[in-house]
Automatic annotation (TrEMBL):
InterPro entries to which the protein is assigned, alphabetical: P-loop_NTPase, Small_GTPase, Small_GTPase_Rho
Keywords assigned by UniProt, alphabetized: GTP-binding, Lipoprotein, Nucleotide-binding
Protein name in UniProt: Mitochondrial-like Rho GTPase 1-like
A Gene Ontology molecular function term of the record: GTPase activity
Superkingdom per UniProt: Eukaryota
Family of this protein: Belongs to the small GTPase superfamily. Rho family.
Length: 121
C-alpha cells in the first residue's frame, strides 16, 4: 500500500482583514469545529495536524492584530504566508470596499502573491 508523503513541511495561512470582521472567530471555529461565544483579540498560531487533511500537509493558521501599532508584525506574517485569507463582514459594506481600497493594495505593496477572500454569514 502506498503511504501518502507530505508535499512540503506545511502550509502557513495568515488571516487578515478589518477590525471585527471575524478573523479570530473563524480560526477558533476551524480549530474546534464550533462557533466560539468569545475569542481572544489575537489567537496564538493554530496548528492543524497533517492527519486532519487527505493530502497529509499540516496547516498553521496565523491570526493578525487590527492595531496600527502591530502593523509591522502583521506585514511580516503576510510576507511569510503561503496563503492569505482576507475577511470582511457581509453586514458592513465598508469592510467589503476596503478589500480593494486597502487590503489588495497592501498585499501588492508587500509583493504577496496568493490570496483568498472569505465571506461572513
Ligand atoms: N453573525 C456573525 N458574527 C460573527 C461571525 N464571525 C464573527 N462574528 C462576530 O463578530 C465579532 C468580531 O469577531 P472577531 O472574531 O473578534 O473579529 P476579529 O476580526 O478577530 O476582530 P479584531 O481582532 O478586533 O480585529 C464577534 O462578536 C463575533 O462573535 C460570523 O460569521 N457571523
Ligand atoms: Mg481578532
Amino acid at each position: 500500500m502506498t503511504k501518502t508523503v507530505p508535499a512540503k513541511n506545511g502550509v502557513r495561512v495568515v488571516v487578515a482583514g478589518d477590525r471585527g470582521t471575524g478573523k479570530s472567530s473563524l480560526i477558533a471555529a476551524i480549530a474546534s469545529d464550533s462557533f466560539p461565544d468569545s475569542v481572544l483579540p489575537v489567537l496564538p498560531p493554530t496548528l492543524l495536524p497533517a492527519d486532519f487533511f487527505p493530502d497529509y500537509v499540516p496547516l498553521t493558521i496565523i491570526d493578525t492584530s487590527s492595531s496600527l501599532e502591530k502593523k509591522n508584525k502583521r506585514n511580516e506574517e503576510l510576507i511569510g504566508a503561503d496563503v492569505v485569507v482576507l475577511t470582511y463582514a457581509c453586514n458592513d459594506s465598508q469592510s467589503f470596499s476596503r478589500l480593494s481600497s486597502y487590503w489588495f493594495r497592501e498585499l501588492q505593496k508587500l509583493e504577496v502573491g496568493v490570496f483568498l477572500c472569505i465571506f461572513l454569514a
